[in-house]
UniProtKB/TrEMBL annotation:
SAM-dependent methyltransferase TRM5/TYW2-type domain: residues covered: 130-406
Annotated PANTHER family: TRNA (GUANINE(37)-N1)-METHYLTRANSFERASE, TRNA METHYLTRANSFERASE
Skewed-composition ranges (Basic and acidic residues): 416-427
Subunit description: Monomer.
Pfam families on file: TRM5-TYW2_MTfase, TYW2_N_2
Function: Specifically methylates the N1 position of guanosine-37 in various cytoplasmic and mitochondrial tRNAs. Methylation is not dependent on the nature of the nucleoside 5' of the target nucleoside. This is the first step in the biosynthesis of wybutosine (yW), a modified base adjacent to the anticodon of tRNAs and required for accurate decoding.
Protein name as it appears in the record: tRNA (guanine(37)-N1)-methyltransferase
């Protein structure tokens, strides 16, 4: 644990790196270079033991000796109270006790230490957390820290050598394509980046598409479900983005139909198919509204066979609004019922729908909302609810997975539930997280 802290400059708004110099005086014992290991072992917890500082320093007086530095609060008179082993070494190996001067500057302190030094004294926490996407650090600064946003960006940039650009999510949201707009806090402003995940490379313009590195575990969890023991799995990715579900699934052997309404996401999805050398027969890409894609993909896949054929899985990773698209599945196959009944091995897809909830009873809340949109009760025994992550205090992201049942799939077409008002719909934000 460090007992060294930088000088406090609470309220600093323009980063002055020269203001963080600080000096400490400690004592050290001079020992023959060949006996350093023995002395270090004997002194143990009484060594300097400070992060990023060596316990052994060069001795300016001789190349034959070294200085073993002792903890900062230890004084000469305290040496008499050392453990017996250390006292013995003092008698046999120590050539003398000397004063040693340590100069520390901005480069030594961590980003957290510098931010503690510049934030107001009454700050409850420091805004040091960020998500890294390639060379870009993405922050979600609270408004109370906006006066310090530039200095925070510079500190993050300075202290993370593989980061060249720091951005902050603004309150402005692209309402059509559902991605956060960014403001540059520090760095070169280069938003073109590349990320490696699940054995694939993803290239994209971070300012124009949605990407969340914190979801890599969820991407991998679902992709593992797309690998059946027999036959080839067919996957429909309704809100595919740049392909974090679609590409690993296709690379793993699935046939994927992937869609995104955002032209930039669609462009980079296709670019990443090429980048990862995925066979074009394994993945089919679309740039459509989610509802229209679901209908079109079902039709296109069925046209590849004269017998019943449909998807094994549909992924709907747009947690703010995906539930509102579930009404598309009601009556989706009502003109294909004869094909279904003529096939002895006919099956219907499993739907994986991501969503947010603030309810104290997430299971009941999500099941009620799903049931409202598909127009049928949720079978609790066949439905799985997986907690993906906590997004904000009292707000969680879940994935609800359930099989599409014949009574919903072959139901008569009727007015979409999403056209009706529903109190739960207003509780969701119109954006992916």
């Amino acid at each position: 644990m460090s007992i060294f802290f930088p000088p406090a400059h609470h309220g600093m708004k323009v980063l002055n790196r020269a203001a963080f110099k600080k000096s400490y005086d400690v004592i050290g014992v001079r020992v023959p270079a060949k006996r350093v290991g023995i002395v270090v072992k004997a002194f143990g917890n009484n060594l300097l033991n400070q992060p990023r500082l060596r316990n052994v320093a060069e001795d300016s007086g001789s190349k034959e000796t070294k200085l073993v530095l002792l903890k900062a609060d230890l004084r000469r008179e305290d040496l008499e109270n050392l453990p017996q082993e250390a006292k013995k070494v003092m008698e046999t190996d120590v050539l003398g006790v000397v004063d040693h001067h340590i100069d520390l500057d901005y480069d030594y302190w961590t980003s957290e230490q510098i931010m503690h030094a510049v934030m107001p004294k009454d700050a409850k926490e420091i805004p040091s957390s960020f998500t890294q996407t390639g060379h870009i650090a993405h922050m979600n600064l609270r408004e109370e820290y906006y006066p310090w946003k530039t200095i925070v960006g510079e500190i993050i940039l300075d202290k993370n050598k593989n980061i060249t650009c720091v951005v902050n999510k603004t309150n402005s949201i692209d309402t059509t394509y559902r991605y956060f707009k960014m403001e540059l806090l520090a760095g070169d402003g280069n938003m073109m980046t590349m990320v490696k995940e699940s054995g694939c490379r993803f290239k994209f313009d971070f300012s124009k598409v949605y990407w969340n590195s914190r979801l890599h575990t969820e991407h991998e969890r679902l992709v593992r479900m797309f690998k059946p023991s027999e036959n080839v799995s067919c996957v429909g990715d309704v809100f595919a983005g740049v392909g974090p579900f679609a590409l690993p699934a296709a690379k793993g052997g699935a046939i994927v139909y992937a869609n995104d309404l955002n032209p930039s996401s669609y462009e980079w999805l296709n670019e990443n198919v090429q980048l990862n050398k995925i066979d074009s027969k394994k993945i089919h890409t679309y740039n459509m509204d989610g509802r229209e894609f679901i209908k079109k993909a079902v039709q296109d896949l069925q046209e590849t066979s004269t017998e019943w054929k449909t998807f094994d899985h549909f992924v709907m990773n747009l947690p703010a609004t995906a539930i509102e698209f579930l009404d598309t599945f009601r009556g989706l196959y009502n003109d294909k019922k004869e094909l279904f009944e003529a096939s002895k091995d006919a099956k219907l897809p499993i739907i994986h729908c991501h969503c947010f909830t603030k309810s104290a009873d997430p299971r009941q809340d999500i099941f009620d909302r799903v049931a409202h949109m598909i127009g049928a009760p949720v079978d609790s025994e066949l439905t799985q609810l997986h907690l993906v992550r906590n997004v904000a205090p009292k707000k969680d992201m879940y994935c609800v997975s359930f099989p599409l049942t014949p009574d919903v799939a072959f139901a008569p077409l009727s007015k979409r539930k999403s056209d009706e008002s529903h109190p739960e719909d207003t509780a969701t934000q119109k954006i992916k997280l």
